[in-house]
C-alpha cells in the first residue's frame, strides 16, 4: 500500500496480500510538482512472510535504507514475531557492515485504538532484549547472523545498534507518508535501492506482507 501512496498518492482501494517482491523506479508523488530535475528512487517492496525472508536477503547487499512496517492497530498479538524478524535484520552482516539505516514505521496510527510509536518501540526493544538473552544462551554468536547487537550489561535499546534506527508513524490508507518520504530522501541517493518490509497482522494469525 505504501508503494502506491509514494508513487501516485492513491491507496488503490486498500491492501492486497502479496507473495512476490514488487520493484519500481519513480519520482515520489509529492515531488511531481517541484520545478527542476527530480531524481527518481528505486523501491523494492518485499512481503514479510516467513517463507519469503530469503528474498529480502537477496536485496540487502544493495539496499541503501530499510523501511520496516508494523501494524499499530493489532500490534500486541504479533509483537514477538515482528521483533524476531527485525532482530534478524538488525544483526544481518550486510546491514551492519554497510550501516544501513532502518525506519520502524508504525502503520494505521490514524485509528483511535492504535498503539503509539513510543509504545511499539519500547515493546519491541523488550522483545529483542529477550531474544539476545535466549540466543546467547545457545551460542556465543548469533545463530543465523555474523553480528550481535546491544551493549553487554545494559538493557537493549535501538540506540545500541550499529546502524541508525528511527521510529515513525504513518497511515497507508489515508496517505500520511511524510515521515517515510523524508526518510527516503535523507538516506537514499538517486536510483539507490531500499526495501519496504510490511507487516500485516490478522486476528487469527500473523502474516508478513500487505
From TrEMBL:
Membrane topology classification: Single-pass membrane protein
InterPro entries per record: P-loop_NTPase, SRP_receptor_beta_su
GO molecular function, one term: GTP binding
SUPFAM superfamilies registered for this protein in UniProt: P-loop containing nucleoside triphosphate hydrolases (SSF52540)
Assigned keywords, A-Z: Endoplasmic reticulum, GTP-binding, Membrane, Nucleotide-binding, Receptor, Transmembrane, Transmembrane helix
Keyword hit for Transmembrane helix: yes
UniProt subcellular location: Endoplasmic reticulum membrane
Any one cellular-component term (Gene Ontology): endoplasmic reticulum membrane
Gene3D superfamilies recorded: P-loop containing nucleotide triphosphate hydrolases
Pfam family, one: SRPRB
Similarity comment text for this entry: Belongs to the SRP receptor beta subunit family.
Protein name: Signal recognition particle receptor subunit beta
Lineage: Eukaryota, Viridiplantae, Streptophyta, Embryophyta, Tracheophyta
